[in-house]
Amino acid sequence: MKKALCYLALSVVTLSSYASADDWSVYSTTLLGIEQRAVPGFADQTFAPAIQFFGADLNKLGDSNISMHMYGWGRVDLADKSTNEGRTDGDLTYAYMDYRFPQANGEIKGGRFFINEGVANEQIDGVSARADLNKYFTLSMFGGAPVKLDWTKNNKGDYIAGGRTSYRLAGILELGVSGLYEGEVTLDTATGKKGNRPMVGGDIWFSPHRTVEVAGHTFYNIFTGGVAENSYLLTIKPLKVVTVTGVYNDQRFKDYFTFSNIHSLFNPFNGGETKSYGGGVTVVIARPFEITADYRHYKRISDVNTDNNGNSDRYGVEARLTLLDKRLRSGLAYHRSDGASGFNGYDEVRGFCLYEISHYVGSIDAIGQFYRHSIYNRGNAFEVIASAGYHILPELALSGDISYGQNPQFDDDLRGLIRLTYTINSKTADKGAKK
Questions:
Q1: Can you list the pairs that 189-194 forms with residues at least 24 positions away whose Cβ atoms lie under 8 Å?
Q2: Boundaries of domain holding 136
């Protein structure tokens, strides 16, 4: 109820601002999901959640440098409970005011919004500011309270602050250094033990030539005294029709998941790490046809859950075909996984097709996995998803999905979804008014 009242109040504030906005847009999506689930040994269940998404962007308010942005959702279950929460739920994803200065690319935000500044990828209730100090340096800062993932649990800290500074040479190099500090984070919900979350990071984007690009970051957990993550991507385009990529990732459980609130899934006490490296080559055979070959090597080490420890390799090929002025897009892929454990060894086949014409769009996507060792007495898993949509008006679209699958968990998994999407902005509204 508390979330619903906040959502309603901010909706009223946003809608009441339309009169003074010269440039605005409103978007709404209504979803009705239908799912039948059959699990061996349990009663069959039927889920029918109805979800409403609503968003609005109001630009050029006041002196034309102010804007307001909002997005949220609400859900009600029409059949069996679809989550462990109540039959109704909702949340305000973001709602903030934004002021952009005429000089120095300056900007100030206030409200609920997302921060993506180096090591900080957070949702906060607070303020942020950024500006170019000169042609080479940029500074950004933020502070406030982290948004709690669950209002009934203290799964976030009491406050958070941080920032990022970067040095750049236009079109060639950008080096960033960032940090954050989250205070009074619950480390153990059972005992109520708390701790602080200090993190620092460095990131790079480097393109010495238009055919070469390197991007990545390293994050360090000061609380645990270890590197939490390394992630780097290399892209090379030796020819116009050839793209070569290389990737390296390294996550260390103790340092990466220390502040997770779901230790059953993201356990920092495993004391291990996972590493992966690999690459791919994409070749445009002809303008409508391209093929990609890729390879990835994984290494997992855990001191607690050793079932998945060892080396795994995943490799394969995917072909894509685009025809009829990009209205028809299709693809076929095959991948093989040679895993360290039984369920990581399988062959995977996937095919898809998407076609758009006039007001209509339709697609079908099928994927199957064939295990080398049976899992729960089943040697394969598959799912087929079919979608169709129709633009009733330029700003109103009706679409739906239906899927059916079988896998080691479910004997039958049937799902359906109906989607109604409405989008209108000041330009389309003015055209409608003239007619």
A1: 189/153, 189/154, 189/155, 189/261
A2: 103-209
